[in-house]
Amino acid sequence: MAVVVIFAYLGTMLWSVRLSFSSSRLLPKDDFVGFAQYTRLFETSRWITSLENLAIIAFFFLLICFVLGTLLAIFIDQNVRAESLFRTVFLYPYAMSFVVAGLIWQWILNPDLGIQATMRDLGFPNFVLDWTVNPDKVLYAIILATVWHGSGLVMALILAGLRGIDTQIWSATRIDGIPPWRVYLSIILPMLRPMIITSLVLLSISIVKMYDVVVAMTNGGPGTASEVPAKFIMDNLFERANIGLATAASTVLLITVLLIMVPVLYSQYFRKNGRAS
Predict the structure, then answer these.
(1) What is the mean pLDDT of the chain?
(2) Where are the transmembrane segments (predicted)?
């Protein structure tokens, strides 16, 4: 089993990296062209646009998901009625695939079918909600859909951490007269560091490989206004028959994921094990 895993994952990964240094197009080639594909990649305006779009989506997605998910977890942790119902409602979007989430929000934000059409039918002819067809706002439509999809994950992880907090901490802070918001910022959240890191890593990886929700909502449009790296890779791999350029772009994404994962794994596992020994 270990051999299969190594061959299926590590082997294909290294093979893809090798192809990024070749002139492969429709079929793989065994030649070597150095960094020519990478040079061409970063000279392609569509790739640069996709990176810029991904940076904007990642910033707002991570920030809003973390804040919203944490607030939802704190809300549920107050022993509210129908807690199971709230947990289910908030976590349910994450159980859907990105394709389903994208299709739902594509319909909601569709100017001819969704909220805009409904409001105009109700007597508000000047109401405008055209985010999916507006180049200046389309990224915010994608951010809205992804936050709706991912904030439940943060809520679940933070809530699990909150349920493990010793109640004596709260008793002591009440005696000292510390405001609840200060307790959360100064005491509780630092104690939830493993949950916070886990949620941010999972969300970051989902952003790096984001493809389904973009295709379902906008297909990268209008124009290239919502283009993302994963879609750039898939288009060059299957539609434009440019294996070399596609694997160069996928290698850049691989390096990005490694830059996220390696420091986290080191701080969470290797450094702890070194201290323990």
Answers:
(1) 88
(2) 54-76, 88-108, 138-162, 183-208, 243-266
